[in-house]
Amino acid sequence: MLRLFILLIVWTLPACHAQVLWRSKRNIPLTQDSPDVPFRDGGKAAMPRSQQLALIREDPLWRKAIALHYDALVMDGHIDVPTLMVSDPNYQFRRRHKTPPHVDLPRMVEGGLDAAFFSIYVGAEYPEGRESINRAKEEIFYLRRQLEGLEDSVRIATSVADIRNITRTGKKAILLGIEGGHAIANADLEVLRNFYNEGIRYITLSHVNTNSFADASQSPPKWGGLNEAGRNLVREMNRLGILVDLSHVADSTFWDALAVSKSPMIASHSSARVLTENVRNMTDDMIRALGQRGGVVMVNFMESVVNRQFTKAVMEEVYERLRNDYNNNYYMMWQVISMVQREKGLRPGNLDDVIAHIVHIAHIAGVDHVGLGSDFDGATMPDGLEDVTKLPYITYKLLKAGFSEAEVRKILGGNSLRVLAEAERIAASLKASP
Ligand SMILES: [Zn+2]
């Protein structure tokens, strides 16, 4: 009996393997050059089999969701894990951790996340100038070191072609974006070009702090938006092919950047203000305008920017407390929000809140202008999206909400890929013109 059992195993093993190979080959489309062709990676469903079966038993729609999720290119606009790589000696990207942290390679595989901008995060405490430049370089150094030896599984990408080449065989593509424009010390174009050469492909014009060229949403304004140096920086970002990221900036900075940028822009991790009244979120006018110019709002999952219990009235109380007790120090915003949430007994944010933001932005700007920007490892996550392994639940909920397969592919990553491709195309034409 045992011999028969072993024989059976030996006989079925190569068959399973062949099936995987066949599947990954089948998933590679013949043409991948046009942004209109829905892009597929070579991934297989890495969710544990028992979990897949349990979910399908719960709702047969899960069968479609799982197949779609692991076949689609899933791309995240904002993950803060490089900060952990610098600050936590126990964190190793190659190893599976218990949540939190939210992201590591084994869980990225399980969650079917194919490509992600890892945030080279420079906190407001680093003064603009040499210190903030060095901090950014330090994070890039540590990130590259953590990826050493993992070339068979994960690689750094600096272009759409890279993303496609890396992910088509099921590998993970990591892109670099700087969060905190003050790292481009005084909008110095030489510093900008050096960061481009280091692989940086987006820059968040400000973090919570207003810097020497851009007003932030959580600091007192200084320039009324972007000053001339800031506008020049945007022009040079267009020319190089670095995406302009408008998460965190003041509304005035958003509109100034929109007026000057020739390339479509992104909000790498922002949600909708009409649903959750918070300066970190975007108004419907902003969402519409960004979309009309080809841009993408990558929805932030952060508990307190998606929780729809933070109504206008609740947030007015938050703002009043910031005014009265914290001298209008918006850096204290998240602490005050948690305080008010506790006192009022408001429920935590959840997956349905995130879906509501995606649906709203798709409704306002069109389904071509919404994506994912989790803020994993940079924020508290809502219930149901505790870490990167939960991403397939977004696909399921989007199908459940009535989006077609093609639309879900766009939201999961197609739109983010397109905006990067467009920035590359415009950079090439700007470089070609005198
Ligand atoms: Zn942020």
Note down, in words, how this protein is organized.
The relative contact order is 0.13. Helix 4 (81-87) crosses helix 6 (130-147). The protein is built from 17 helices and nine strands. Strand 5, helix 9 and strand 6 form a beta-alpha-beta unit. The protein has helices at 2-26, 49-58, 61-71, 81-87, 105-110, 130-147, 160-167, 189-197, 228-240, 251-260, 284-292, 303-306, 312-326, 333-344, 351-365, 391-400, 405-432; strands at residues 75-79, 115-121, 154-156, 172-179, 200-204, 243-245, 266-267, 296-299, 370-372. It has a single domain (59-309, 347-432), classed as Alpha-Beta Barrel (TIM Barrel), CATH 3.20.20.140. Strands 1, 2, 3, 4, 5 and 6 form a six-stranded parallel sheet that branches. The protein has a three-stranded parallel sheet with strand order 7-8-9. It has 434 residues and is an alpha/beta fold. The structure holds zinc ion. Zinc ion is lined by residues 179, 247-248, 269, 378.
